[in-house]
């Protein structure tokens, strides 16, 4: 049974038209599937490769080059929560904030809560140093994050 929907396949084919070579659509295709399926399964890798006239290993190589993507056997939660531990954030308590979030969620960075609500990650500078310590809630910055603010955000995310 195919992993990609007809709509996803159509949008991946539309990416191809924007680039001089089909291979250049690999990353946009991976992002599309990853965002919507919350993982890129082995079957999805094969289907993307088929759409782009590539060997599955070429798609797999691109996917694993970036630690960003979750692959077979891994799945993102509904929200991906990145806690920045870059220098500015580290100087303002990011490592303690990461410890706090791990304890609050009962997981380590890179893992997803059992309820599927949150995947916790650490990041290296997310471009929000003026709001250190900062987090990314999917693609939105959250600035000046205290443990109390993190608790409130986690509560909100679990309720989504
Ligand atoms: S170091 Fe955290 S946002 Fe720059």
Secondary structure blueprint with pairings:
Elements: H1 6-16, H2 26-37, H3 42-51, H4 56-65, E1 79-84, H5 87-91, H6 94-105, E2 118-123, E3 135-137, E4 140-142, H7 147-159
Parallel strand pairs: 1-2
Antiparallel strand pairs: 1-3, 3-4
Helix pairs in contact: 1-2, 2-3, 3-4, 6-7
The protein binds FE2/S2 (inorganic) cluster (FES).
FE2/S2 (inorganic) cluster (FES) is lined by residues 84, 86-89, 125-129, 132, 134.
Describe the structure.
The chain has 160 residues and is α+β, with helices and mostly antiparallel strands. It folds into 2 domains: 60 residues, Arc Repressor Mutant, subunit A (Orthogonal Bundle); 81 residues, 3-Layer(aba) Sandwich (Glutaredoxin), CATH 3.40.30.10. It is built from 7 helices and 4 strands, in the order ααααβααβββα. The relative contact order is 0.12. The mean pLDDT is 95. FE2/S2 (inorganic) cluster binds next to helix 5.
